[in-house]
Specification:
The complex is a heterodimer. Chain A is mostly helical. Helix content of chain A is 76%, strand content 2%. Chain A is built from 20 helices and two strands. In chain A, helix 3 packs antiparallel against helix 4 and helix 17 runs antiparallel to helix 18. The longest helix of chain A is centred in the middle third of the chain and has 31 residues. Chain B is 72% helix and 4% strand. Among the domains of chain B are: 289 residues, no CATH class; 63 residues, no CATH class. In chain B, the strands form two sheets. Chain B has a two-stranded antiparallel ribbon. Chain B is mostly helical. In chain B, a hairpin with a 3-residue loop joins strand 1 and strand 2. In chain B, helix 13 packs parallel to helix 18 and helix 14 packs across helix 17. Classes of the chains: A mainly alpha, B mainly alpha. At the A-B interface, helix 6, helix 8, helix 9 and helix 11 of A face helix 24 and helix 25 of B.
Chain lengths: 489, 666
């Protein structure tokens, strides 16, 4: 077989390739450094990372000029706006995570290039996942990104919680990958041997029970990655043990890329009302359990873990709506919501990174009096929390508004109601840190947090972006709509 | 040169940002320069925009950006528009506003919250300009709420004293009642016009298309949509512009610094209700029934406030009630269809009432924050300049020709006269009578105020002896400029029968009477002019007799006042006026106290028992129970997790299969 690679194909993998090279350069740049070095901030790693991410981001726009939604690499991946949106979320998240990593890890005395390199490698595979269009490339991309994330979860290898969390994540991840693969095999069988999503959509095996169960199993594999109930048990443990910056990275990037891919997968395979009903059930349980479990958490990381679960629940609503009828328009809220969620979550985890001096401090009362010492950080965190709670003027509000109004319009009143109740509950626990920051006196020995410029910059910019998306959402909504329309077109 | 309207509100907003955030760092001198300079610059731009309008006839428009934009459903842009009315208002706001900013430099000297004060003042100017320039009702509402906020902040500016905070809250809550109605009005407009743009709301075809539509309203039955909208908007206006029944906040608002009372609670913010009516003139004219109500409310407010002003001893309270009374005049004018007269009175009132307030501020400043007129008297000697300017203001408000108030008030009274007698509307005649009477009372209580403060024997506290000096500098400058404006302001709109051209009326395009838009038979110029002369002589006579009576009562050696206050009826009336007709007490009994009782009851029933007791503690117990259960599940052991996972998969697959089976069975 003759191997030819077209220009469009090169452009399609350009962002991912740039990211992988960035990771390699970071590793090389850190070669031969001694152990004492682990306390330094290693700004050069961040600079390499930022350059790489910016280049990769720019590459997304290069693709834009030669836009092709057609099949590349024999149907293994595509290069459409939707994929680029997903890659965009991932790349921006990686950029800010890299910015924050240096000073945070330095204060923990374990700053080495593996961390930033893992972010870069992970980002590369996530970008590929967003563009993947056949079962094999989807599976490979998922496994690659998972490996990077497993290692990051256990990055503090001397800490019991970290190793424990990472190990659990790994074992459960392997378990879920089994289901994913099994589901893919079922689909492969039911459709008479097709792997590409377009072939699957065109095949006549869709009425087969085997096909339905296969789709469900694939869905379960993804549900694990995004932390949907009942496949969420790993989330709190892993978040608790992993470095704060890695948690922020995982929470956004893994969720974003998996959801983009799931969305593409479901829009192709359909699945009909049965799957929609199951997905609706998962969504309801996820929203309720996530919010309820977050209520009484004293640990901010665990709170964010459960809050992340709840947000996964909200994000499943548009998929339900899309599956049972009006496809593209309802799924359009997903890209927007992911952008909003990325900005918001990064700002929140930036603050958590900033207050973690020496060890991860993540109790709610650790924030007492933050507003007096670090007003900018406190403001950023407040904006982030308000956005997560879905208060107007923030991106989170618009995101929820899109999802819920769409669900109501399409007649999913009950689902929307659960979403609203969940949001109501969530206000309680999102406002607790706000009260701590603004209305409590600092404890007698308030350690002034060594927020580096990278963290402050991230919090400020992401907080600002949260407000911007909230005030001027039109262009992003428009882009999201077009991107979803591009999937099938 | 293109003028971007955005600059007009943006400049004071920049001033707010700078003085608010950096005020302490940059020092008072820079605060002065920024906080006063930017509104002055804004005035210059307003002037430029105004002259464009006058000489080139172009109404400036800034199309801004799409703001609340749901294609085909709600399309509200963030856009500014400057027509004749807005141009005049902008000039008044930035002009009088700048003078008051300058005045404040002298008045607020040494106050610990100096930069905070100027930041609020700048913010107020911003919102007021947005209110005036906003091209749709919602943007206007933003300004409307914003000025309310600034008013609240400035009334409670000296927040260390409880009374000031209470006054601020009272103003805020009273306004909230009106704002609620305003908001409902906006919703109705949106629902029936489908747009909030001023051009749509004043469009004759759009209004006539709606004229047949009715709404069924509880208690009122079937009401035409237009009437309902106008009524709701007017209720909103009664809150902001202090009309019956929502006027009681304005006198209490005098707790704020005096320049604030001059700017917000006399010259600009409180007239925004009148501005609203003028802006939406065609809409209001389409609801004649509501106009009659407006005329009644306006006239009654004018009378009631004037009656209360008789009995007040606090110099600022007198001025506050006179403001309420003058606002009543403006609404009376709206009610009888004389929109141009109402607007004219807004402008002249801004001049002379700002002058009076600043004059009183000058007195209060000189007297080391003494506001009780019983402890003043004879200040003419120590404060000759303040006395002169205050007297000019007083004569202007009393309607002495050719000062500003004479022309505007005469126009209002004539409009009432015309509708009441020429057109034979009985209610208008009655309300004209009330307003006519009030004109005499205005002259009386204002002279009383001057007499108690400046004339007669000195009753000044001995500790202040020799310390009372004329404040100079910016205070004097502002007084001078406003005195000039109060003298000349009336010439903006000299009526035709006096040889003028009604310039302001033509410029703004507002109707001067109900007859002008063909609601009734039009009259020949001869009849009109004869009536105008008659009305003018009547109002001169009533103002003159008010003045004379006051001179007689408060001049030297006259015992009339003493005899009156010591007679039984007299004492009773004085008491009634002093206690403000017990309206505050009435509100407290009817609204505040039952509300407090209900709140307390709800607090115990809902908050303590239902929410705290059952929901919170109950849900806490429940979640704790669930949490424990989860914890048992969340053992931390991988087999447990795998079990959950596996069960989940089995359950979902089972559900899937049974769903498919159901589907197959059908």
């Amino acid at each position: 077989m003759e191997l030819t690679i077209s220009g469009a194909e090169i452009l399609a993998i350009l962002p991912a390739a740039i990211l992988v090279v960035t990771g390699l350069v970071q590793l090389f740049a850190d070669l031969g450094r001694s152990a004492e070095d682990k306390h330094s901030e290693k700004t050069h790693l961040a600079m390499i990372g930022v350059t790489g991410f910016l280049l990769a981001f720019a590459a997304l726009f290069v693709q834009g000029s030669g836009a092709s939604a057609g099949e590349l690499y024999a149907g293994a991946m595509t290069d459409d706006l939707f994929g680029r949106m997903g890659a965009g979320v991932v790349i921006m998240t990686g950029l800010f995570s890299t910015l924050m990593a240096g000073s945070y890890l330095a204060s923990r005395g374990s700053n080495s290039a593996e961390f930033t390199a893992l972010i870069s490698f992970g980002a590369g595979s996530m970008a590929l996942l967003c563009q993947a269009t056949n079962l094999i490339s989807i599976f490979v991309a998922i496994e690659t990104l998972s490996l990077a994330v497993y290692v990051m979860a256990g990055y503090f290898k001397d800490e019991r919680a970290a190793s424990e969390g990472a190990f659990k994540y790994f074992v459960l991840g392997a378990f879920s990958s089994g289901f994913l693969l099994l589901g893919m095999a079922f689909i492969y069988g039911a459709t008479g041997g097709s792997v590409a999503l377009t072939d699957i959509a065109a095949s006549n095996g869709q009425q087969d029970t085997l096909f339905s169960v296969g789709t469900l199993l694939v869905l379960i594999g993804f549900a694990f990655k995004v932390g949907a109930v009942p496949f969420h048990s790993w989330v709190p443990d892993v978040y608790q043990g992993a470095p704060v910056v890695a948690v922020g990275w995982m929470a956004v990037a893994v969720k974003a890329s998996s959801l983009f891919c799931l969305c593409r997968f479901l829009l192709f395979t359909g699945g009909g009302n049965d799957l929609a009903q199951l997905l609706a059930a998962i969504s309801v349980v996820t929203i309720l359990l996530g919010n309820l479990a977050a209520l009484n958490q004293q640990s901010l990381k665990r709170m964010m873990a459960y809050s992340g679960i709840a947000h996964t629940g909200y994000l499943l609503i548009p998929l339900v709506v899309a599956l049972s009828g009006d496809g593209s328009s309802s799924a359009a809220s997903i890209p927007f919501y992911m952008f909003a969620y990325a900005a918001t979550t990064l700002a929140a985890f930036g603050v958590l990174a900033a207050i973690s001096v020496g060890s991860d401090r993540d109790q709610v009362h650790d924030l007492d009096g933050l507003a007096k010492n670090r007003p900018l950080l406190a403001l950023g965190f407040t904006v982030a929390l308000l956005s997560l709670a879905g208060i107007p003027l923030t991106a989170g509000f618009i995101g929820k508004l899109l999802i819920l109004s769409n669900a109501i319009q399409q007649g999913f009143l009950l689902l929307a109601l659960v979403g609203i109740i969940g949001s109501l509950i969530s206000v309680y626990y999102y406002l607790r840190p706000v009260v701590s920051m603004w209305f409590r006196e600092p404890k007698s020995s308030f350690e002034l947090v060594p927020a580096s410029w990278g963290i402050t910059f991230t919090v400020a910019l992401c907080g600002f972006a949260t407000i911007c998306f909230g005030l001027f959402p039109d262009w992003l909504i428009d882009l999201s709509k077009r991107s979803v329309e591009a999937i099938l077109g | 040169m293109d003028i971007n309207l955005l600059w007009i509100p943006l400049l004071p907003f920049l001033g707010f940002l700078i003085t608010g955030m950096l005020g302490k760092k940059i020092g008072n001198k820079s605060v002065n320069a920024i906080a006063c300079g930017l509104p002055i610059l804004s005035f210059v731009i307003s002037y430029a925009a105004w002259s464009r309008l006058v000489y080139e006839g172009t109404e400036l428009h800034w199309s801004g950006f799409p703001w609340i934009w749901i294609e085909g459903l709600v399309e509200i842009p963030f856009a500014l528009h400057l027509d004749g009315i807005a141009a005049v208002m902008c000039m008044v706001i930035t002009g009088v506003g700048s003078l008051i900013h300058l005045y404040s430099i002298g008045y607020m000297k040494g106050d610990p919250g100096y930069h905070r004060y100027f930041a609020y003042l700048n913010l107020f100017t911003t919102f007021m300009l947005i209110l005036v320039l906003g091209d749709n009702l919602l943007l206007m509402f933003i300004g409307w709420e914003g000025v309310g906020l600034c008013s609240y902040l400035l009334i409670g500016f000296w927040y260390e004293e409880d009374a000031n905070c209470a006054a601020g809250k009272k103003a805020f809550i009273m306004n909230r009642v009106g704002d609620f109605a305003f908001l409902l009005g906006i919703f109705l407009c949106l629902a029936h016009f489908g747009s909030l743009d001023m051009s749509t709301l004043t469009d004759a075809t759009a209004i006539s298309a709606l004229s047949a539509e009715t709404l069924s309203v509880p208690l009122l039955g079937s009401v035409s949509v237009i009437s309902m909208i106008v009524l709701l908007l007017f209720i909103g206006a009664t809150g902001k512009s202090a009309q019956i029944p929502l006027y009681v906040w304005l006198p209490d608002a005098m707790a704020g610094p005096t320049p604030v009372s001059a700017l917000i609670h006399a010259a600009t913010m409180v007239t925004s209700g009148v501005y609203l009516c003028c802006r939406l003139m065609p809409l209001f004219e389409a609801a004649p029934a509501i106009l009659a109500i407006i005329a009644g409310i306006g006239a009654c407010t004018a009378l009631l406030a004037a009656l209360i002003a008789f009995g007040q001893n606090d110099i600022k309270k007198v001025l506050a009630y006179s403001t309420v009374s003058q606002l009543g005049y403006m609404f009376f004018a709206i009610g009888v269809g004389a929109f141009s007269a109402a607007f004219f009175h807004v402008v002249t009132h801004a001049f002379f009432k700002a002058l009076l307030f600043l004059g009183s501020g000058s007195v209060i400043h000189a007297m080391h924050h003494e506001q009780d007129m019983r402890k003043m008297g004879g200040l003419r000697k120590q404060l000759p300049f303040t006395h002169l300017t205050f007297l000019i203001g007083t004569l202007a408000i009393a309607g002495v020709p050719p000062l500003a108030g004479f022309f505007s008030k005469d126009e209002i009274l004539f409009a009432g006269y015309q509708q009441g007698f020429l057109m034979g509307v009985d209610s208008a005649a009655l309300f004209w009578g009330i307003s006519f009477l009030t004109a005499g009372m205005t002259a009386f209580y204002m002279i009383r105020c001057v007499a108690l403060t400046f004339w007669g024997e000195s009753r000044v506290d001995s500790s202040l002896e020799g310390k009372v000096h004329e404040p100079g500098g910016w205070i004097g400058f502002a007084l001078f400029m406003l005195a000039v404006a109060s003298i000349l302001g009336g010439f903006l709109n000299v009526p035709e029968f006096l040889g003028g051209h009604a310039t302001l009326g033509h410029f703004t395009g507002l109707h001067s009477s109900a007859a002008a838009h063909g609601a009734a038979a039009s009259f020949s110029p001869e009849v009109l002019h004869a009536a105008e002369w008659k009305s003018m002589f009547l109002s001169l006579a009533v103002a003159g007799s008010g003045l004379l009576l006051a001179f007689y009562c408060y001049g030297k050696g006259h015992s009339l006042r003493k005899r009156f206050t010591e007679s039984g009826v007299g004492r009773w009336l004085c008491r009634l006026s002093q206690r403000k007709f017990y309206v505050d007490e009435f509100y407290a009994t009817v609204f505040v106290r039952p509300f407090e009782t209900m709140s307390h009851l709800l607090f115990i029933l809902i908050d303590r028992i239902l929410i705290d007791g059952i929901l919170v503690s109950g849900s806490a117990l429940l979640t704790r129970g669930l949490g424990n259960w989860f914890r048992k599940m969340q053992t931390g052991f991988i087999p447990g997790y795998l079990l959950t996972f596996g069960c989940g998969v089995l359950l979902l697959v089972y559900m899937m299969l049974s769903l498919i089976q159901q589907g197959g069975a059908q």
